[in-house]
TrEMBL record:
Protein keywords: Mitochondrion, Transferase, Transit peptide
Superkingdom of the organism of origin: Eukaryota
Entries under InterPro entries matching the protein: CAF17_C, GCVT_N, TrmE/GcvT-like, YgfZ/GCV_T_CS, YgfZ/GcvT
Descriptive protein name: Transferase CAF17 homolog, mitochondrial isoform X2
GO molecular function ontology, one term from the record: transferase activity
Listed PANTHER family: TRANSFERASE CAF17, MITOCHONDRIAL-RELATED
Domain GCVT N-terminal: 67-178
Localization per Swiss-Prot or TrEMBL: Mitochondrion
Annotated organism of origin: Priapulus caudatus
Gene: LOC106816406
Residue span(s) of domain CAF17 C-terminal: 284-360
Length: 364
């Protein structure tokens, strides 16, 4: 079967000139549009060496991430009141410069991050109406469902886990190569990662299907930590390990630089403090990538301090993979060359913090 192009193509300024095309294919018992951002002419210019391969595209199943579905006439309204981003950016009639997936955060009443999510806009369900997938940590899906149900009240929306039926894949490309789809077997969604261009593409597949079955010239990464290393190298946090619930604010998690927060939408839970922080410009800490002086066999304890030569804490560790790390750092201390962390045995290991180039990217 071939993919059928729906006539409308719009330029998405928010994603640096990528094209958004709507495609459809049979899935289950209905037609679900598949937005393939780069299928026609977008070329991904990754500057990250880990995203490049002579074999073409590299993919990996992001096993720590799960999916839940929100469907019904009031699905959009329910999500709009709970997330930091604007659901109207997924509505082509309201916002023509759209992408078909959206990065966002869910906050608590104090404006602190509970979960980071990616929302995927599917075609309307012929029986239930508005139809969205939410990606979050797999072991947090039940908690996110409970949170959404708490605020659903009388809104007409059904919520349920899809983690057993679907899987999340990351797909990265070599420079100047366009993604093409080999077949329409079981792929549900393919779109540029809405956070940072060097993260490549987000691909949703039916469980049991691999990205190499769908994307032309694509192989599964040999390194089981390939995707995690790519994220850490770029300085992009994901999940409750990098964003412990209730322990950081949206701008500290770089939501403004990662297209994850709208300062023009209406009210949502946690908005007041987020808006005030943006208005005053008082962001003193941000999540940053670290380079460690050596690969760590012994892991530091959770929330381990990043300290300077005087022993003063200037950051908190948010994760380590080999010689790569993420830490919530004081911005004014990020250029200090004397930084170190302590392992679980008390041994000091030197670290270098850096400010990612995409920090200059404008948010939505």
């Amino acid at each position: 079967m071939t993919l059928h192009i729906v006539t409308r193509l719009v330029r998405c300024s928010r994603q640096r000139g990528s094209l958004v095309g709507a495609f459809s294919f049979p899935f289950c018992e209905r037609q679900i549009p598949l937005p393939v951002t780069a299928l026609l002419s977008y070329r991904h210019n990754s500057q990250d060496s880990s995203a490049q391969s002579d074999a073409g595209f590299i993919s990996q199943c992001v096993e720590k991430r799960g999916l839940l579905r929100v469907v019904g006439p009031d699905a959009k309204a329910l999500l709009q009141g709970l997330i930091t981003n604007d659901m109207d950016c997924l509505n082509v009639d309201i916002c023509p410069t759209i992408n078909n997936c959206l990065y966002s955060l869910i906050l608590n009443n104090q404006g602190r991050v509970l979960w980071d999510i990616i929302i995927y806009r599917l075609g309307e369900d012929k029986d239930k109406g508005q139809n969205y997938l939410l990606e979050t940590d797999k072991d947090q899906v039940d908690d996110v469902l409970k949170h959404l149900k708490k605020y659903k009240l009388r809104k007409k929306a059904d919520l349920f886990s899809m983690s057993d039926e679907m899987s999340v894949w990351a797909v990265a490309s070599p420079p100047n190569e366009s993604v093409t789809v080999a077949s329409n077997k079981s792929h549900i969604f393919l779109n540029m990662d809405p956070r940072a261009p060097d993260l490549g593409y987000r691909l949703i597949l039916a469980s049991g299907t691999q990205a190499s079955d769908v994307v032309t010239n694509c192989k599964v990464a040999d390194d089981p930590q390939w995707y995690e290393k790519l994220r850490y190298r770029l300085g992009v946090g994901e999940g409750v390990v990098n964003h412990p619930p209730g322990k950081c604010f949206p701008l500290e998690a770089n939501a403004d630089y990662l297209n994850g927060v709208s300062f023009r939408k209406g009210c949502y839970i946690g908005q007041e403090l987020t808006a005030r922080t943006q208005h005053t410009g008082a962001v003193r800490k941000r999540l940053m990538p670290l380079t460690l002086a050596e690969n760590l066999d012994e892991q530091p304890e959770g929330d381990a301090a990043v300290a300077n030569s005087a022993g003063k804490q200037v950051g908190k560790l948010r994760g380590v993979i080999c010689s790569l790390g993420l830490a919530l750092m004081r911005i004014d201390a990020s250029e200090d060359t004397s930084l170190h962390i302590k392992t679980s045995t008390g041994r000091k290991v030197g670290v270098t913090a850096s400010q990612p180039s995409w920090w200059n990217t404008e948010g939505p």
